[in-house]
Design brief:
This protein is of the alpha/beta class. The protein is built from five helices and twelve strands.
Length: about 220
């Protein structure tokens, strides 16, 4: 199950920017602080969307909070943004809680002609925010595309398997015309992956194997 908590922050600003993919470090008693992406940032408040794992120390701590409870948290960042004409975001699992807000921010800024979000999940039941995705697609026809990749389920309209080099080549270079010798200049391509460290390292290796160099083609850079 996926839940969203809204926290008031009436004091000094946290110093994080949702459009830059900055994260909030939540102090969880008895364990080291846990990084969470804000799923919404408002005036004097922010949301954290999390997946609850039975027995999980961090998600269990959040799940046990009641209305009126307080948490201790601090900023982890900061990053800088490198604007591009074509933005590719790959979200692994619950990494969508950072991936979708960043995609929405890129579309709102207007720098990118195309923004594509590739969301890798195990099954369709693991996905959420369907209304939000549809609304963003409706607001930006022709600019925003969503691709679902399901590793443990075959479903019409979704890719089956895992995000590999072939998927990246087809969904970015192939769809955008940015392959070597293609109609679109690769210079404006920017990429972001959100997931576990091994997943993000694997993504970096795959995108570089396609000829993109880092950090030149990173959307958000520390």
């Amino acid at each position: 199950p996926v839940y969203t908590l809204t926290f008031a922050n009436p004091g000094a600003p946290l110093g994080v920017r949702i459009d830059f993919g900055d994260v909030v470090k939540v102090v969880v008693p008895g364990v080291k602080p846990k990084s969470y992406s804000m799923s919404r940032q408002g005036e004097g408040e922010f949301d954290i969307t999390y997946k609850f794992y039975p027995g999980g120390a961090c998600s269990g701590y959040l799940h046990g909070l009641a209305v009126g409870d307080s948490i201790t948290c601090f900023a982890r960042g900061a990053k800088r943004r490198a604007a591009g004409s074509h933005v590719g975001i790959v979200a692994f699992g619950v990494g969508i809680t950072e991936g979708l807000p960043v995609a929405a921010a890129e579309l709102a800024k207007g720098d990118a002609a195309r923004v594509k979000l590739v969301w890798a999940s195990r099954t369709w039941a693991d996905t959420f925010w369907h209304d939000e995705l549809r609304a963003l697609q409706a607001a930006h026809p022709g600019r925003f595309d969503v691709v679902h990749v399901l590793s443990r389920e075959a479903r019409e309209g979704c890719r089956s398997g895992r995000v590999d080099r072939g998927v990246l080549e087809a969904e970015f270079d192939g769809a955008w015309g940015t392959a070597p010798g293609g109609a679109t200049d690769r210079g404006g391509c920017r990429f972001l992956s959100v997931g576990t460290k091994p997943m993000m390292r694997a993504f970096d290796e795959m995108i570089q194997s396609l000829g993109y160099t880092y950090p030149a083609h990173q959307l958000l850079v520390r």
